[in-house]
Each structure stands twice: as structure tokens, then as C-alpha cells.
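HOLO CASE FILE
Compound: DPM
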Amino acid sequence: MTSPTGVVSPPGPRTLRIASRRSQLAMVQTHWVRDELRGAHPDLSISIEAMATQGDKILDVALAKIGDKGLFTKELEAQMLVDRADIAVHSLKDLPTNLPEGLMLGCITEREDPADALVVHAKHLDKTLATLPEGAVVGTSSLRRLAQLRHHYPHLEFKDVRGNVITRLEKLDSGDYDCLILAAAGLGRLGLADRIHELIDPAISLHAVGQGALGIECREGDASVLELIQVLEHRPTALRCRAERAFLRELEGGCQVPIGVNTSFSAPEAGGDLVLTGMVASLDGQRLIRDQVSGPQEDPEALGITLARRLREQGAGPILEEIFATVRPEA
Ligand code: DPM
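Model generated. C-alpha cells follow.
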């Protein structure tokens, strides 16, 4: 492999083995990664090993009650640790902020629209989130969506929905729910963007940390693999997601907590400041703490930590402790 400067890089692996979940969305994402890597490294042979994770298998238990960090990632990580895979492709929002020893987040891909989307049953096509009838049943297993929507729309009811995106849509269409809230990015990647009825305004509901981006995990210090995957890194997305992940890590929130974020650049072209908004809410939606910080994009982690501390000063700690005690008493 010769770089434009004529320097020969160290011999990389001739093959790159990718571990992926088996769901349709996971496979679409993994195939995208494979195709990008193929385009950049035509000589590389790439294999994909698809497997089910704990989160794919346990479908009868509310996501928050399983409570385990790394629900969708552990089995893929095990493959890398025993050297049966070189990278794992994850929805970044499913990747815990603390990774197992020996593994690292190798790069972050360009983010799609990170917003949540409302998807409605055919009988509600003339409604919006604000005009759904009293008692309308919203399907979601996300405590973050539940808490924020309850805060703004106390007339709505919430019911757990598990399974992959397509299964959920089938359950909606068969009348089990009045609407679903799903990530716009996932629907878009599955070619189902036409099901997006309304994008949810961040003023109403903030998205999950890392939503809409992919995280490529690899073995720590695996220089040849890191070099191969660098073509996938999208710096503005990485800066935003590093701030978001530092915020979540500092609040010690796993992925199943009502914590939401939003990030932007004050002046994208000119190396402007990074703006981070975050919120923590109680499950009944009664208490919702939200704040915003901005600062130099060179140190996104510092920004995340600052915002987390600010929310703690405003009472986020007791809200989170209460949630940990109720949704996963054994943890
Ligand atoms: C996590 C959550 C959900 C997924 C919790 C949250 C949604 C669960 C649900 C951590 N992972 O968002 O507050 O609503 O029952 C998941 C989806 C995507 C990645 C599906 C979705 C696709 C979009 C993306 C499941 N993980 O949120 O609609 O790449 O961000």
C-alpha cells in the first residue's frame, strides 16, 4: 500500500474480519462500512460474521429492565478479543461509554440526521404528536423518549415495544399501538424514510448520545486496522459524539437512562465553538433538567464533563439514582 507521499505503510492484514449483529439495520450498516472500506482499499478482502446479541435474543423483557450495559455489543466484542474479528460495527448509541479492556472506539462515521421520528398508524395520518387523541398509545422502549414526551404531552400513554425496526412497524400497523417513536436515521438506512410522519423538534425531545452515527470498535493499538478504518472517520461527527459521550460517561448513565443531547457548531466552516445541550428527566416526566454549554471544539470531552456537572448542580443526581433503583433494583 503506497500513500500519496510515496511512503509504504506497514503491511496491513490482507483480510479484515467484521463482526456485526444480524438485524436488517445492522447488516445495512455493516455493508455500508464494507463498501466504503473496499472503495478505499481495493486489495483488501473483507469478511462479515453476523451474530445475535443478548439484546436480539431477549425480546420479552423491557429493555430498561435488562439494564445490562453492552446488551447489543458484548458478543461482537468477544469475537475481537479472541481474534476472530478485527472490527465491530455498531450504532454508536448502542456502544457503552466505557469499553472492555483491550478494545477501543477506532473511528466514528458521518452522522445522519440524529433526530427521533414519529411514525403513526394509518388512522392518525391527519394528526401530529401534539394532536394525537387523549390516551393514544406510543410504542417505545426508550426511557429518554418516554420521559420527555410525558413531560410535554401528559395525555399520551406509553407501551413497551421490542424487536427490530421492521417488527415494530408490523406491530404498529396491526393496531397494537397508535404511533411509534424511532430514530430517523434507522428508518432512512432501511429505505423506510417514507414512514417518517414528523421529525421531533429538539425543543420537545433531545436525541440519544451518538444517535445517527456508527462507531467502529477495534482492538486497542491495532495500528494496521486503525489505519485501514481511518477513511471512515468524520471529524465533525466525531467531535460532537465525543462531547455527547463524555457527558453521558460523567453522568454515569448507561444507554437505558432518560438522558438526551443535541450538538451543533456555532460556525461550522470557521472552526467555531461546539454547542452541547443536554437533559436528564424523571420517568414521570415531572422533573426535567436541561442546560446548554459551548466551548472550543478542540476539547469536546471537557464540554461534556462541564455540562454533566452543571446538570448535577441542578439536581440530576437524585433523579438518576431514583431511576437506577426502580428500573434495575439488582444492579
Ligand atoms: C438505544 C435506545 C434505543 C436503541 C434507547 C434510546 C431505542 C429503544 C426503543 C440505546 N438503542 O434511544 O433512548 O425505542 O425501544 C437503536 C436504534 C438505532 C440504534 C433504533 C431506534 C438506529 C438509529 C441510530 C435501539 N439503536 O432508536 O429507533 O443509528 O442511532
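CASE NOTES: The longest helix spans residues 24-40. The CA atoms of residues 30 and 199 lie 25 Å apart.
CLOSED: yes
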